[in-house]
From TrEMBL:
<feature type="signal peptide">
    <location>
        <begin position="1"/>
        <end position="19"/>
    </location>
</feature>
<dbReference type="InterPro" id="IPR021255">
    <property type="entry name" value="DUF2807"/>
</dbReference>
<keyword id="KW-0732">Signal</keyword>
<feature type="region of interest" description="Disordered">
    <location>
        <begin position="197"/>
        <end position="227"/>
    </location>
</feature>
<feature type="domain" description="Putative auto-transporter adhesin head GIN">
    <location>
        <begin position="30"/>
        <end position="210"/>
    </location>
</feature>
<feature type="compositionally biased region" description="Low complexity">
    <location>
        <begin position="212"/>
        <end position="227"/>
    </location>
</feature>
<dbReference type="Pfam" id="PF10988">
    <property type="entry name" value="DUF2807"/>
</dbReference>
<protein>
    <submittedName>
        <fullName>Putative auto-transporter adhesin, head GIN domain</fullName>
    </submittedName>
</protein>
């Protein structure tokens, strides 16, 4: 009987740890988001900033959400980031002009993020997958990070290094500037003007027939038109 009680208590404890817990939070105004340490952020446009935290395998209080300057910073508390923890943060925003993901953090959008100008960056295995409707977009990826961009923009500036990847085949851009180095990869779609440089094993692939095209490569880099 005693052994049965111990087993029952263990099962109860394990079930409690693995159960999903939700917590709604109020938050101040922000125009940028920084996410890190394995947290997944999901974006939604709204009339007022708010967020909801959903976790499995930990307490929601271990997910930090704080506004610093113009940024909403989202990450795990120190020493709370483990492989068996799942943390999702659903963010309602009013306006965004900056997105950043690092240390395996991720950002996803449910709909196109509309902005006059937006800066998107990912590093250290961070991942950002968003749809955009912007006048100008600046995108950078480094250290095995990944960006997947879709939508439309008049001006796109991209920079990828150290095995970073930018896939913007589904982002229709009028004018594009691209630079890839150190084994990084950039994929773009351009209609009017392209300036591209690849070096040190960097790869740039583009779709479209730009009226003006200036491309060059060095040290094993390559710039090619794809079908």
């Amino acid at each position: 009987m005693k052994n049965l009680l111990i087993v029952t208590l263990l099962i109860t404890c394990l079930t409690g740890v693995s159960a999903q817990t939700t917590q709604n939070r109020t938050i101040g105004s922000f125009t940028g988001i920084k996410v890190a340490e394995g947290v997944n952020v999901y974006l939604k446009k709204g009339d007022k900033e708010s967020l909801r935290v959903e976790v499995t395998g930990t307490d929601p209080d271990n997910v930090v959400t704080e506004v610093s300057g113009s940024y909403l910073k989202v990450h795990m508390r120190e020493a709370r980031y483990r492989g068996n923890i799942e943390a999702k943060v659903y963010v309602t925003y009013v306006h965004l002009d900056k997105l950043s993901a690092s240390s395996a953090g991720s950002i996803y959008s449910e709909e196109a993020v509309k902005s006059n100008s937006i800066d998107i960056s990912a590093s250290s295995a961070g991942e950002i997958e968003v749809a955009l409707d912007a006048e100008s977009v600046t995108a950078s990826a480094s250290s095995a990070a990944e960006l997947e961009l879709s939508g439309k923009t008049k001006s796109l500036s991209t920079d990828a290094s150290s095995a970073g990847e930018i896939d913007a085949y589904n982002l229709e851009a009028t004018k594009v500037q691209a630079e890839a180095s150190s084994g990084a990869s950039i994929k773009i779609s351009v209609t009017t003007e392209l300036t591209a440089h690849a070096s040190s094993g960097g790869s740039i692939r583009f779709r479209g027939n730009p009226n003006k095209s200036v491309t060059d490569s060095s040290s094993g880099g390559s710039v090619k038109k794809s079908s």
